[in-house]
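Please study the protein below:
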Amino acid sequence: MNYDAALGLALSRLHDEGRYRTFIDIERQRGNFPQATWRRPDGTSAQITVWCGNDYLGMGQHPVVLEAMAQAMASAGAGSGGTRNISGTTRYHKELEAELADLHGKGAALVFTSAYVANDATLSTLPKLLPGLIIYSDALNHASMIEGVRRNGGAKRIFRHNDLDHLRALLAADDPSLPKLIAFESVYSMDGDFGPIKGICDLAQEFGALTYCDEVHAVGMYGPRGAGVAERDGQMGRIDIINGTLAKAYGVFGGYIAASTRMVDAIRSYAPGFIFTTSLPPAVAAGAAASVRFLKTAQDLRDAQQLNARILKLRLKGLGLPIIDHGSHIVPVHVGNPVHCKMLSDMLLESHGIYAQPINFPTVPRGTERLRFTPSPLHGPAEIEALIKAMDALWGHCALNRAEASA
């Protein structure tokens, strides 16, 4: 077999479909978020505004976080030195897990190298702990949840996105004596819509199922202390396992689960994705703990972010652009064609100094390609005005439809 030719064919398919992904080389500027330096392939550079990052609140540049990381680095050095079982547990990891358990009102928390790993490791391990477990998974769950459910070797049921009637029918059709778990998200990041948490918890209570909620795009962003949409909606105590990230609103790196002490202990003891992975560097754990602690009382940042999101949506709607608005902090603009989506992204960057990465298949279904904007509290009126003018000009230049997409 000609292996190189096979690889070339696979890459050619991506190019032919207009969805070959390129990396944009940017250098974030400390203390100047959301501004960054774009390093062009030809060696030149330009100043740009980042409009597609997941550092939703700018905490990756916050002095509280940077100081905590600097102190930990000076004290403990760079790496952790091993897995959590073999020399990789420090006071910084324990303090971070204590902050997270307190945040979610759970008995314990467990930190992983990413929320992807936390989802995959936890969902693939649960059937070993609960023989016969059936997992009911929302059709639009994140790839990490899909992978964890796929790898666990147990039974799975896929319910239509946010469709409580379909979920009820699936639950009712299965043996009531078997263990069950419902896995879903609180904020689905590509459309920015919310999961029906109360309705799912009601069904879980009725059918004796556990609940597993991915709050990755919600932690730090919603609720009185930033614990997520479940906290905002008064449902956090009804969620058995909460998955979250430290790499988005908290601005650092890593992921976690929060659950009962016994559940966390079982996952800690059985999940290969935890057992055999080197732990977070102490400085990262310290910075994440500082960010979680700070955002528990930083409602002003959450309010400012939500205000900017509302302003941006209103301005884009005023242009007649097809935005998808479910009331969350995420602002998707529907394009519907991978080539056009990439073209718009390139023109925004090259002509207007605005970075918004195109979102194409398989991240979203074919025909729903989009630009996805994530305003932060630090995107000021000048940045918003520049984006609005650029989108208006480019939308007209490309002769794209201005009929508004349905929410």
User: Anything to note?
Assistant: The chain has a mean pLDDT of 95. The chain has 14 helices and 16 strands. The first helix runs from residue 3 to 16.
